[in-house]
Every structure is written in C-alpha cells, then in structure tokens.
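Need residues for this backbone.
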C-alpha cells in the first residue's frame, strides 16, 4: 500500500511515519508534503496513492483549499487538533480522522478500516468530504450549550453553573473542579460527552484528561519539547500539558 503524509510540522510528520511503519512495515510512504501549494504541485503531476494522511491546518492554509482545487479521489484519513465532536461527519465509509496527539491504537484501527473496506470502492469520496467540510467550517449557529451541571457532594446533589467550572478532569471518575478548588463527582462516563456539551468559546480540550475554562488560565509557556505548559490560577495550583500537535490550536483559541 502506498501513502502520502501531508503535515507541516516535521516532528509530527516523522512521528506519524514511524507509527505507520510500526503498524505495517509494508506501507510505503511516497512523500511527506507540508503545504497546500506543495500538495497541488505533487497531485497534479503524480498518480494518487492508495491512501493519504492529511493534516487539516497547514502553514499556508487548510487542506480543504487543496481539495477544492485538485480532484483527489483516493481515501483520506485526516489528522487534526480540532474538537473531536466538530468532526463527527468524518466518520464515514470514505473518510476518517485522527485526533492529535495521534494514538497508535486509533491509527491502527483507521488503517484496518481502510483495508477491510478495500479502499472504500464505490463510495463518492468527494461528496463525503464536502459534507465533512460543511460541518467543520459552518457548524450550527443554533446549537445550545449546557450551562448547568449536576454533581455529587457527599450524599447530596448540587448544580454547578458552567462559569463556576475551572476545569473538568478524568481520573477514573470525572470530576468538576471550581475556581475555588471545590471538587465534585459527575455521572459522566467519558470526557468526550462533556466536551460535546460545552461552548468551545469558553472551554478547551487540553488533552485526554483535562478540559479547561479560559477564565481559569493564568499563564502558559513552551517547554523544550514544544509542548505547552498551562498554569491555572490560584488557588488551583494545577499545571496542564498541551501537546505540540495541539499547541497552535490552543494559541488560536485563547486569542
């Protein structure tokens, strides 16, 4: 199987290529492209691969700009730091996505999905991509986000307004932690459930464990591995790591 990796961060591209070859050494990575323009030049002068791994945000635009200009028919697995629930439309027969930082098991499952579907033959890939693009670029303006959350306090229940929440954390159970450092247990089973209910204007999915409120952020810095270290305000006394893959998405969000 022949594939192309489209990724503008060299370290991320290197890591992805390494994971792909660990999963299936027979996969041949024909090229690693880092921009919309380099993709246009490549795909207009070379045959399509069997599969493309494509980052959504590139250094000279978004990969959808490429798809508007070049008629690509082979299956695509998008890699992205976007909110997972904004990308439900990508879970179709012809298109898939991987949320950064890329998990090896999820990558393996995406590759196996491609193989089992025998290249998604007979599916209108262009139509499926357009539907996904529409959902990502123009999400419903009428979506109502949850403003109150029920939580446990001992044997009692209480209601916590979203503005009181400093962060949600998954630590076996899923907890609400308020700006005053009060911690309450919720009945949610996954952090993804909560993410879908929150207004992304105020909350950011930092990693697989934390969702943080913009009002709880004090400072942030970049470490030697290009990760972001986010310091939450006192009295929380918590630092939250954001991977280098999601660092730019965080910076765009917080501005």
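Answer:
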């Amino acid at each position: 199987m022949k594939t192309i990796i489209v990724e503008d961060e060299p370290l991320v591209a290197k890591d992805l290529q390494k994971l792909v070859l660990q999963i299936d050494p027979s996969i041949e990575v024909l090229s690693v492209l880092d921009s919309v323009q380099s993709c246009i030049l490549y795909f207009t002068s070379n045959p399509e691969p069997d599969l493309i791994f494509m980052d959504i945000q590139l250094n000279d635009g978004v990969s959808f700009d490429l798809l508007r200009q070049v008629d690509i028919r082979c299956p695509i697995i998008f890699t992205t730091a976007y909110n997972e629930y904004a990308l439900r439309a990508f879970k179709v027969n012809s298109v898939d996505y991987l949320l950064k930082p890329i998990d090896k098991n999820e990558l393996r499952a995406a590759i196996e999905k491609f193989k089992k579907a025998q290249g998604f033959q007979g599916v209108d890939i262009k139509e499926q991509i357009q539907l996904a693009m529409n959902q990502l670029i123009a999400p419903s303006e009428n979506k109502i986000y949850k403003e109150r959350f029920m939580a446990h306090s001992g044997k009692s229940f209480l209601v916590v307004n979203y503005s009181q929440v400093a962060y949600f954390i998954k630590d076996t159970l899923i907890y609400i932690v308020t700006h005053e450092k009060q911690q309450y247990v919720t009945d949610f089973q996954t952090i993804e459930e909560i993410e879908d209910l929150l207004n992304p204007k105020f909350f950011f999915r930092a990693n697989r464990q934390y969702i943080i409120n913009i009002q709880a952020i004090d400072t942030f810095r970049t470490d030697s591995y290009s990760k972001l270290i986010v310091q939450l305000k006192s009295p929380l006394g918590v630092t939250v790591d954001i991977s280098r893959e999601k660092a730019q998405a965080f910076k765009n969000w917080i501005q």
